[in-house]
From TrEMBL:
<dbReference type="GO" id="GO:0006270">
    <property type="term" value="P:DNA replication initiation"/>
</dbReference>
<dbReference type="GO" id="GO:0006269">
    <property type="term" value="P:DNA replication, synthesis of primer"/>
</dbReference>
<dbReference type="GO" id="GO:0016787">
    <property type="term" value="F:hydrolase activity"/>
</dbReference>
<keyword id="KW-0639">Primosome</keyword>
<keyword id="KW-0347">Helicase</keyword>
<dbReference type="InterPro" id="IPR011545">
    <property type="entry name" value="DEAD/DEAH_box_helicase_dom"/>
</dbReference>
<dbReference type="InterPro" id="IPR014001">
    <property type="entry name" value="Helicase_ATP-bd"/>
</dbReference>
<dbReference type="GO" id="GO:0006310">
    <property type="term" value="P:DNA recombination"/>
</dbReference>
<keyword id="KW-0067">ATP-binding</keyword>
<keyword id="KW-0238">DNA-binding</keyword>
<dbReference type="GO" id="GO:0043138">
    <property type="term" value="F:3'-5' DNA helicase activity"/>
</dbReference>
<keyword id="KW-0479">Metal-binding</keyword>
<feature type="domain" description="Helicase ATP-binding">
    <location>
        <begin position="1"/>
        <end position="165"/>
    </location>
</feature>
<keyword id="KW-0547">Nucleotide-binding</keyword>
<protein>
    <recommendedName>
        <fullName>DNA 3'-5' helicase</fullName>
        <ecNumber>5.6.2.4</ecNumber>
    </recommendedName>
</protein>
<keyword id="KW-0378">Hydrolase</keyword>
<dbReference type="GO" id="GO:0006302">
    <property type="term" value="P:double-strand break repair"/>
</dbReference>
Length: 210
């Protein structure tokens, strides 16, 4: 999937290893001296994504999203422009990152509506990504467990190369427990979460604090 000037739809269930594919593509780009843009739909996901990439590459990573101050944006922009970083992680605004040697654009959870900007400047992130991919002869990855109709149609028509990850890495789906909250009310539990969920959260917090 690291072939230049090609676009892919990476369709895979949660836990199927999509992030590992991202890491390998970025790793190949770094070896070739090329830059990578990784887009995530929610700003809250950005620290988690940065942690994964920093843990793998021990690289300085630029961050771009709308909640940065003007000063912070300028600092990040300058790092990219000066070639001080090879990886950018951010929300849709990161598609404008001024890389001179762009090798890959990865759009995670590409179906998310936050990739469409309804305010000025109005834009669709996927269309800008396609333009930059062709201009830079880069690799473009659309990734999702539930692709948008637009992206899936392009894949079925051969405009995007479809790559499917049908199984989870450990081969098992997570255990799901359904709790009848009416029964919780009978037990005088008037909170928004069940007793079993509360116990599990407490258990995890205790483990984290050890």
């Amino acid at each position: 999937m690291d072939q230049p000037n090609k676009s892919y739809l990476l369709k895979g269930v949660t836990g199927s290893g999509k992030t590992e594919v991202f890491l390998q593509i970025v790793e190949e780009n770094l070896k070739n001296g090329k830059d990578s843009i990784i887009l995530v739909p929610e700003i809250s996901l950005t620290p988690q994504t940065i942690e994964r990439f920093q843990g793998r590459f021990n690289q300085k990573i630029a961050i771009l999203h709308s909640r940065l101050t003007q000063k912070e944006k300028f600092q990040q922009w300058r790092m990219i422009k000066n070639g001080d970083v090879k990886i950018v992680v951010g929300a849709r605004s990161a598609i404008f990152a001024p890389f001179k040697n762009l090798g890959a654009i990865i759009i995670d959870e590409e179906h998310d509506k936050s990739y469409i900007s309804s305010q000025d400047p109005k834009f669709h992130t996927d269309e800008l990504a396609l333009f930059r991919q062709k201009y830079n002869k880069a690799t473009l990855i659309f990734a999702s467990a539930t692709p948008s109709i637009k992206t899936m149609t392009k894949a079925l028509n051969g405009q995007n190369n479809l790559v499917e990850l049908k199984n989870r890495v450990n081969g098992k789906m997570p255990k799901v427990e359904i709790v009848d909250m009416r029964e919780e009310l009978k037990k005088s539990n008037y909170s928004m979460i069940s007793s079993s969920l509360y116990d599990k959260i407490l258990e995890k917090l205790k483990i984290k604090n050890k």
